[in-house]
Here is the input.
Amino acid sequence: MQNKNVILMIEDEQPIRRFLKPYLESHDFRVLEAATAVEGLALASSHKPDIILLDLGLPDMDGLAVLRRLREWTFVPVIILTARGEDREKVQGLDAGADDYLAKPFDVEELMARVRVALRHLARLKQGGEEAVFETPDFKVDLSARRVTARGKEIHLTPNEYDLLALLIRNVGKVVTQKQALQEIRGPNSLEQGASLRLYIHQLRHKIEARPARPKYILTEQGVGYRLKYVEEPKASSPKSDVS
Ligand code: CA
Here is the structure.
């Protein structure tokens, strides 16, 4: 009967909770609220939410510490909420296993989009894998055959370019930090990796984007990393709302 997704907000600012709660409920979530880190950790373990919104600036504990505590026992998607000036913490949070971030003040539509992407990502992980073929109107990647086509023509990617693209595809819709991307590139010289990451992204855009200078798919997240834009599947799948 009860199959609503449960979302836990760990956020000490009451106006934000008061604003988000009805909005999330209207999108069919059951909402749990915590104003402190201690309360949030307790609710996370007692209620096993499907997704957590975690404010980094909490009164009783550092949000990053909360995230690390969560990651000791759960892969629940965590979206961190950051205030201005928390750029360093934001990147640290993503590298420590947060799924995504939103900088305050954020747009609720954007929040919902991030939440949907995170839930979809988790569902795919639970199913035990990704789709073998990733397709957009401009390019297609057959992950089982390592074959890439752009606008109908097969294109050649170097191993690093391909690995980077595959990483972005595995995380489609989610931000990938520079550090996560660098770990994917098996470069010989770590000192040059920051520059080579930018170069690989540049080359990838030239190979798959219709207008590389104005990328539509591989987006730069300033100071954080990159995000492969999620494009809704064009095929109209039959609605499943009448099941159960
Ligand atoms: Ca706060």
